[in-house]
Design brief:
- The structure is a homodimer of 192-residue chains.
- Chain A is α+β, with helices and mostly antiparallel strands and 192 residues long.
- Chain A has 9 helices and 8 strands.
- In chain A, the strands form 2 sheets. The first copy, chain A, has a 4-stranded antiparallel sheet with strand order 1-8-3-6. In chain A, strands 2-7-4-5 form a 4-stranded antiparallel sheet.
- In chain A, helix 2 runs antiparallel to helix 4 and helix 4 packs across helix 5.
- The longest helix of chain A is centred in the C-terminal third of the chain and has 27 residues.
- Chain A is globular, with a radius of gyration of 18 Å.
- The interface between A and B is medium-sized, with 29 and 29 residues.
- The structure holds a DNA duplex (30 and 30 nucleotides).
Chain lengths: 192, 192
DNA sequence: CGATTCTTTGAAAACAGTCAATCTGTGTGG
DNA sequence: CCACACAGATTGACTGTTTTCAAAGAATCG
């Protein structure tokens, strides 16, 4: 399964065989079954997680017991509770698998070591962080600016690969509306 | 005005006088009057901007001409269109001053140079980026999970310094509701 | 003081949420 | 192979929240 990450790396930076080995040695492969937690709220989160295969979600549960999905990650995506990673505080979020999945885990320490030895790797990670910063900023814009219908259209535009892969109720949660509302929005759009 | 940034730096990392001079040399001080643009949608954005004094906002204007505020920045904050900075594409957002303000501008090139010469500076910036990533993630959670009243309470909790500094209509825009709704929410809360 | 901007209020309309029932498709066990 | 159970999706009626539009009241600045 490391090959997926290798291909991902090679597409972004050039590495010597030796450097690639360092990275491989730092990675832990983990298989997750559908619904299996990778992390639960209350625990500490120490890792960087790359998705080789499958689909995961990051979500929080509010006082009323409702789940709110912060983000999805599929193949070639990253996911995890940065908050907990950075602060050392227990995570507020849960991460679990929506399909049988395979992920690569890197402890934060091993990441820091890799950074020191392979500057290009650090540059890559920084670029990824910066890019995801933009994505998340677009998401805020969508959340505060759009109606339910517009939100769904924006979702279809930005995440077409998720629309038929993730249950409707979860997309609704991700967009901040109820499943019923999303179902009606969809019907509306189909009519057009 | 550089003193504000100097104090900010010294609180976070230790620097030699020489290093501090490098940073000072890279900075451009800019004074902005109330309502003055620092950046407009359509232009390219090349800089990193630190606020020494005053208050700025980052916002987008939608097709209907409505403004949606993505973020505020006051003293010791950073602001700018990362999207444009990173991609080189024209900015989708505007930045302007809500009060007479003073900011420090650093071109991205000079930032990269500083990174090479002062690793601690790069670490600091990376830490800031990571932290703001968390802030923005909390904001998403609030935007998709809370009712109008809850959003405002969350805002009071996370940004008490802004509540009496920024006009109500702008807070409403930031929270994704109309000024009328926020006014009513406030009245509701006052009653309690 | 007058002009302008910001905020509040009211009434009606649009929108989204809730609850309960039904429908659909999938997979399981008899 | 069928019947059944189950989860996910849809629909309807109703309720509650938020927006819209218009007007009136504060507050601020020259």
């Amino acid at each position: 399964m490391f090959e997926v990450f290798e291909a991902y790396l090679r597409a972004k930076i050039s590495l010597t065989d030796e450097e690639l080995e360092l990275i491989r040695a730092a990675a832990t492969v983990k298989h997750l079954r559908k619904w299996q937690y990778l992390a639960q709220a209350g625990e500490r989160w120490h890792s960087h997680c790359f998705v080789c295969q499958g689909c995961l979600r990051l979500y929080r549960v509010d006082e009323k017991g409702q789940e709110h999905i912060i983000s999805f990650a599929v193949e070639n995506g990253w996911i995890g509770d940065r908050q907990s990673l950075l602060s050392g505080e227990p995570a507020q979020s849960n991460v679990d698998a929506l399909e049988d999945s395979t992920v690569l885990l890197f402890t934060d320490e091993s990441f820091q070591q890799l950074f020191r030895r392979i500057p290009a790797f650090q540059d890559m990670i920084n670029a990824i962080l910066a890019r995801s910063f933009n994505v998340i900023q677009d998401r805020i814009h969508a959340a505060i600016s759009y109606s339910a219908e517009e939100k769904y259209q924006d979702f279809l535009r930005t995440s077409p690969h998720l629309a038929n892969r993730v249950p409707l109720a979860m997309i609704a949660s991700y967009l901040g509306m109820t499943a019923e509302t999303l179902s009606r929005v969809r019907k509306q759009l189909a009519r057009k």
